[in-house]
């Protein structure tokens, strides 16, 4: 049944229907930058495991190494290999659109995973699957507001400049904070490129520059823990509320110890499985909504026990 | 008629790197069903055209005995300008981007010429500084070309061949001819090979170097614009590490870092070697982590082989 | 590269050169420049000259500084080392990962041993096989980054119980009120400076960097000398990894990415020529500190972080230019 549907989709889109004789569907994925942090690496493993668990799926796993141009080349290569569907973790939300459009024109459905692409490209994708990063930023703003009782001055440590996830989280955080919590002022924002050591350096400079810092919002826990380290060294960690996103194991432990106020629970395994499932649903001809967000709840000391410690 | 010694020493038309390119092409054709097809081969040409265009200019600069580390940043700036200035029309934006590349090249060349500071230092400074210019100009933002004509150009083809590949091949031919057949080409070799003799022969060394820096600036900018047409967008980090891959490709092609020796055909071979390796390993699904190691090992291996060949031919001359 | 560059400079010398107004300043060199920078920043920001800020900057600069000490020796010997960025990632990931598996002492020993082996590989290829150092270390930059990722499988590494180990002392500890990274940096700089200035070994390194042919005729074993410079460089990277790993108590796989350029920028700013045969450790220390204080000063003044790149561009060119003009003038006066 499933196979028939897949084949009918393929015939309809005129993609290599004749060449295709095997029982499997081939799905190509091009990831952003595996190895740069554990989230992406765990995602890749989970994706490969999920694919291996499904007998009908054969995957081509590629990594763009963070380079937009290389990712575009990989999308072209996947089109060339006539895969049945392409999953892309965009290195940049805008620059990959023409490549996605080429896949679309070649009749290959594209699923965007984890990080959104710009609105101009939405008509060329079959679906997006991933976290709602604007909502995550907003949730973090609410936690910050709660923790500070609506009053204080904070600093923000953002992810890689120009990267959609970083921009959306910042935007969600800043907008919601201004709305829900006008008494909390953002003193300064600096990027730390998802890098703990850089975040530590950025925070050290903040600590010298500002005598009073009530809170830190970091674009992910990796950076948040870097900021926490810096504040601990300076003996000021007790006065500062730390809030992150993408809960890492180190962040989870810091919440356990009471040093870290809260974060956003986001599982790369859910992320990877959702992406693969979305692609399979698209290939099966199911009616898939354009935006598929998986749950990313707030995590604080109060509900910590409800979550398993992240494996990364 | 075939002069084996000349062939082995790499001074004949067929350089060792081409033997390597043919070998890996055969290898990947056997290993992957998808590798040897017109579509994939033109893909490789398009993918290598970015590094390839810069490498054309870099060859001249390196034959001069100089080096340019700022090409990746120049590429990024040109890409951002060519997209960011499109409110004034695509032509204006593209011209401004290219002009900026040439101007930055001129600045590098002028500094090397007039101050006598080592090109490595001058362009290392520029590499850091021009990246700063990009961030100042873009304020960390990616730009998106609302006009699809721009990105359609990047995807367009003449017959089965992508326009970008044709541009790259035409530029390669032009640069090959300039190097072989013109006074500027001969002077470029002379300046790199023996500067004092070149000066005695009345060659204006500084001017020759500056022109070559402008050429590499032009090609870096052109590569940036063409890359932007592939993406219909630009990002501030575009071109990071490209200088390293460009230099690698040129060296693979047999151009000597000490100057005075090199060729465009060799560079084309070097560029294709990297492009075919990357593409082929993608097709074979070699994990990304291993690709880095393999590329590094191959680069060192080629250096060693090249050295052994040169040693042999050197002994041949002595005997 | 070296021989061509030398003749090029010879040709520059024959031109008339007006050193002009900047004579005095350039004669004092990089130190004056450093003081001017410090003064300018202290006018615009109150915190800049505070003790805590200065300590923060020096501590942050010490990782780059430690590596720069080693790379300076390689450069004096007439070669380059671009592989230090990946090597730093390699060593940091290794020491942090092994910490929980075999204990801190074992982790440190294994890390030093393997880092030195990478240095030996560089030394073998450049010193004994006479391959071009720029390309060899560029290839190693790529290969070692791959090795790190293969080793860790791309996962971050962390030290689990950070309060139960003394390992953190290398990055976070204080001795007599001075941060341990600063102490390690200073000790290494002093030792290497003394070795380079006052021992036969140091003189040999200068000799092979300055005039390799003459050095070989005078009986210096060039291969071993070049080899040893890469071992020193690797040793310094291992020390930096110790500091970095202990500072963060964890590591990402690309933690050292880009360090090779920062290190080079610091060395160049200090005035060590890339041609080999000249340079000094203390100049490198000042160059690295200038970079650190400029970055910090601009941030304190509220400029976005990328303005420091523009400023770095300008001062690198100016510093090297003035230095050259000054040397040329001294040469010319000596000749006349």
UniProtKB/TrEMBL annotation, chain A:
<dbReference type="Pfam" id="PF13407">
    <property type="entry name" value="Peripla_BP_4"/>
</dbReference>
<keyword id="KW-0732">Signal</keyword>
<feature type="domain" description="Periplasmic binding protein">
    <location>
        <begin position="32"/>
        <end position="287"/>
    </location>
</feature>
<dbReference type="InterPro" id="IPR025997">
    <property type="entry name" value="SBP_2_dom"/>
</dbReference>
<dbReference type="InterPro" id="IPR028082">
    <property type="entry name" value="Peripla_BP_I"/>
</dbReference>
<dbReference type="GO" id="GO:0030313">
    <property type="term" value="C:cell envelope"/>
</dbReference>
<dbReference type="GO" id="GO:0030246">
    <property type="term" value="F:carbohydrate binding"/>
</dbReference>
<feature type="signal peptide">
    <location>
        <begin position="1"/>
        <end position="21"/>
    </location>
</feature>
<comment type="similarity">
    <text>Belongs to the bacterial solute-binding protein 2 family.</text>
</comment>
<dbReference type="GO" id="GO:0055085">
    <property type="term" value="P:transmembrane transport"/>
</dbReference>
<protein>
    <submittedName>
        <fullName>Monosaccharide ABC transporter substrate-binding protein, CUT2 family</fullName>
    </submittedName>
</protein>
TrEMBL record, chain B:
<feature type="transmembrane region" description="Helical">
    <location>
        <begin position="249"/>
        <end position="276"/>
    </location>
</feature>
<feature type="transmembrane region" description="Helical">
    <location>
        <begin position="120"/>
        <end position="138"/>
    </location>
</feature>
<feature type="transmembrane region" description="Helical">
    <location>
        <begin position="44"/>
        <end position="62"/>
    </location>
</feature>
<feature type="transmembrane region" description="Helical">
    <location>
        <begin position="158"/>
        <end position="179"/>
    </location>
</feature>
<keyword id="KW-0997">Cell inner membrane</keyword>
<feature type="transmembrane region" description="Helical">
    <location>
        <begin position="69"/>
        <end position="86"/>
    </location>
</feature>
<feature type="transmembrane region" description="Helical">
    <location>
        <begin position="92"/>
        <end position="113"/>
    </location>
</feature>
<dbReference type="Pfam" id="PF02653">
    <property type="entry name" value="BPD_transp_2"/>
</dbReference>
<feature type="transmembrane region" description="Helical">
    <location>
        <begin position="12"/>
        <end position="32"/>
    </location>
</feature>
<comment type="function">
    <text>Part of the ABC transporter complex LsrABCD involved in autoinducer 2 (AI-2) import. Probably responsible for the translocation of the substrate across the membrane.</text>
</comment>
<keyword id="KW-1133">Transmembrane helix</keyword>
<keyword id="KW-0813">Transport</keyword>
<dbReference type="GO" id="GO:0022857">
    <property type="term" value="F:transmembrane transporter activity"/>
</dbReference>
<keyword id="KW-1003">Cell membrane</keyword>
<comment type="similarity">
    <text>Belongs to the binding-protein-dependent transport system permease family. AraH/RbsC subfamily.</text>
</comment>
From TrEMBL, chain C:
<keyword id="KW-1003">Cell membrane</keyword>
<feature type="transmembrane region" description="Helical">
    <location>
        <begin position="174"/>
        <end position="196"/>
    </location>
</feature>
<dbReference type="GO" id="GO:0022857">
    <property type="term" value="F:transmembrane transporter activity"/>
</dbReference>
<keyword id="KW-0472">Membrane</keyword>
<dbReference type="GO" id="GO:0005886">
    <property type="term" value="C:plasma membrane"/>
</dbReference>
<feature type="transmembrane region" description="Helical">
    <location>
        <begin position="227"/>
        <end position="249"/>
    </location>
</feature>
<keyword id="KW-0997">Cell inner membrane</keyword>
<feature type="transmembrane region" description="Helical">
    <location>
        <begin position="108"/>
        <end position="128"/>
    </location>
</feature>
<comment type="similarity">
    <text>Belongs to the binding-protein-dependent transport system permease family. AraH/RbsC subfamily.</text>
</comment>
<protein>
    <submittedName>
        <fullName>Monosaccharide ABC transporter membrane protein, CUT2 family</fullName>
    </submittedName>
</protein>
<feature type="transmembrane region" description="Helical">
    <location>
        <begin position="134"/>
        <end position="153"/>
    </location>
</feature>
<keyword id="KW-1133">Transmembrane helix</keyword>
<feature type="transmembrane region" description="Helical">
    <location>
        <begin position="261"/>
        <end position="294"/>
    </location>
</feature>
<keyword id="KW-0812">Transmembrane</keyword>
<feature type="transmembrane region" description="Helical">
    <location>
        <begin position="21"/>
        <end position="43"/>
    </location>
</feature>
